[in-house]
Design brief:
The structure is a homodimer of 410-residue chains. Chain A is 31% helix and 24% strand. Chain A has 410 residues and is an alpha+beta fold. In chain A, the strands form three sheets. The first copy, chain A, has a six-stranded mixed β-sheet with strand order 13-12-11-14-10-15. In chain A, strand 4, helix 2 and strand 5 form a beta-alpha-beta unit. The longest helix of chain A has 20 residues.
């Protein structure tokens, strides 16, 4: 089945080199035919690394591998394959991950614990790692500073467009670059991490500071998105800092204040990538932003927003271009968070439709109807209880989702 | 849009009279054309009542009304309308509920607090209660002991078949009858209650004992089902005991032991009705039973089972007749309950497919493929950690669900 490109797709941005990052893609024939499915990136000695991973309790073998490798805070190479997630594959899966890491470490000449891995695709089938390692030597010979689009395409599964984002940040007056690529379309309900996302910078930043910047950025981006409420077993975000651009030294102790702009731009890149993933949500026709205000806490606001964003009835109503605020009321009420029906206000596209437990007197549906026909839908919910707020992004639930997930094994 | 009858539908059983219960249905034109939409049931003086209601924090006005009325433990009349849920309608909604109760109380000649109400249908629109009350006098004149099918049909919304169940139970050697009707198809994720369900018996049982029997029965039936994870604002289960059959007196103190058979048969009726609701799940093509064993507790087992039953990826895979156990692994892991990937076993249709963190050696897919083509799908998950177990029922997620919920306002 050919899946058309998402109507919410955005074009790939210009992606200049990130000093120290050389990357590329190759076709290893792991599952797909006639396309690239393995991506490699090599970094210079001294590159620091940060990572956040799925909270799913049945993680894949590459997630186990990376968690252990992350303890060293150093990275020289990243190997990613698409088509097979190497999840729930037992000891054979762990062996496949190790064999891949050993092969990559030999090519680059580095300790095996400086190799990072990620796999995405079908769960429960053995990864044919011999095909993967057989493809690595030739791929290693082709790595270049320019192959960003190839890398972004090589990690796709049911994605309909490649996803990348780039920003320039200042550290002590010196410009550094931050570039990320991501994949993801279904099984999207990130919890402390998400999908596959790889971010690269030429800044020189101690691993501890890199980790804290990444965790904060992921919390405000990927962790605020959902496509289908299903948390993947492979969610991985890795951030590599090559240190190839000379700037004022960022000390491990007390260096955080120098990273204000870096952290802001990193957060931008992560949010841009997270929204690209939602825009490519399986079957998505509309991007939905849900702003919840007036909750008793930020945590409570987020739970209410997620209850709305994960409600099949809300998502199908939006697919049908129906501003069905009754279903939004239902989702607020089922969230289990403090809510008072008679203090609740609901708006769509900037028009408040319901307030104080009932429809707004003289409510004019016309601007709401027009808004619902658009590609980007804004829902506002004010609980009227406190100052807690949160924003969550999701997409609608359409026949496309059923087609993609009911018709063949992905 | 015409919705075809669910392929999982079951025929309406024979429904003999329940001594003391007189009921009927009429067309009040509240929302639907050319069909009945208001149901009334009258009970003799001395009838006791029990009820459980939605935990959704934005409940409808009829739920508020019933909660208050239940304090008295006595009932003389039940009025139900379909087409408008009278939810999120503010003070006007509460007034509409009260006006309906006053009109019914006058017809029957009883205190207004012995009237029970339920409404189902669209949320957020004012209930045109004048049409409802205008229809009551003629409807009251037609009540009979035989009108069970009319009542079961009169409460339907997107339901494709009427739902009823009946059992005979013994109290101290005397036979009593228990008959229930229910409606429900979407917005089904009951939490301590569900949808609209009305159960009637001719036994004479103190209200406190009736309440405890009902709460227990609902916990093992409706609360173990889900169609779409969306908890309704109107979920209501009411149980009326007319006391018209003479049997050994059931004392309020210490009478519970006499109700062992009654409670068992009541649980049967409730489970039968709950499964009929799942069989009529919006767009359902397959009934799915999920048995989780080996959890650290029954509560933990139920959460894992619900995570599987609410996973869009599991439900679409089953719609596609794909025994995609990778998605079941994902759902187990996302539940957030204790789980160990390497102790997990997964079976479908009696065949264990995965065990000890990987596929079962020599696994033969043929019987599983055959099972997946059937109407009733059994999933077994053993967590291998303890003795906690739970069973949950759900249905698959198909294009029909999108059609029903994305195409018009229900």
């Amino acid at each position: 089945m050919a899946i058309p490109v998402s109507p919410l797709a955005v074009p790939l941005p210009e992606l200049p080199a990130v000093a120290g990052v050389r990357l590329g893609a190759a076709a290893a024939g792991i599952r797909y035919k006639g396309r690239t499915d393995v991506v490699m990136a090599e970094f210079p000695a001294g590159t620091t690394v940060a990572g956040v991973f799925t909270k799913n309790l049945c993680p894949g073998a590459p997630v186990d591998w990376d968690r252990a490798a992350l303890a060293n805070g150093k990275a020289r190479v990243l190997v990613v394959n698409a088509g097979n997630a190497n999840v729930f594959t037992g000891k054979a899966g762990a062996d496949a991950a190790k064999a891949t890491a050993v092969a990559a470490a030999e090519l680059v000449g580095c300790p095996v614990k400086q190799v990072f891995l990620a796999s995405t695709g079908v769960i429960g089938e053995l990864l044919p790692h011999e095909r993967l390692t057989a493809a690595l030597p030739a791929l290693h010979g082709t790595l270049s500073e320019a192959s960003w689009e190839a890398a972004a395409r090589g990690i796709m599964t049911t994605d309909t467009f490649p996803k990348a984002s780039t920003r320039v940040a200042s550290i002590g007056g010196t410009e550094v670059r931050i570039t990320g690529i991501a994949k993801g379309s279904g099984m999207i309900a990130p919890d402390m991490a998400t999908m596959l996302c790889f971010v690269f910078t030429d800044a020189k930043i101690p691993a501890e500071l890199l980790q804290s910047a990444l965790a904060k950025g992921v919390d405000g981006s990927f962790n605020c998105t959902t496509v289908d409420s299903d948390t993947s077993t492979s969610d991985t975000v890795l951030l590599f800092a090559t240190g190839q651009t000379k700037h004022k030294k960022v000390p491990a102790e007390g260096g955080a204040s120098m990273l204000r702009d870096f952290r802001a731009k990193l957060a931008d890149v992560l949010l841009d990538l997270a929204l690209q993933v939602v825009r490519d949500g399986e079957g998505a026709q509309k991007l939905i932003r849900i702003d919840v205000t007036g909750a008793v806490s930020a945590k409570s606001a987020k739970r209410v927003a997620m209850a709305i964003g994960n409600s099949p009835l809300v998502k199908t109503a939006i697919a049908g271009e129906d501003a069905n605020w009754g279903r939004i009321v239902m989702a607020v009420g089922k969230a289990g968070e403090p809510a008072d029906r008679d203090k609740l206000s609901i708006g769509v596209g900037g028009t408040w439709m319901a307030r104080d437990g009932g429809v707004v007197p003289g409510y004019d549906e016309a601007p709401v109807v027009a808004h619902m026909k658009g590609r980007e839908i804004d829902i506002a919910v004010d609980l009227g209880l406190g100052s807690g707020k949160a924003t969550v992004w999701t997409c609608d639930l359409t026949h496309g989702y059923i087609d993609i997930n009911g018709s063949y094994r992905s």
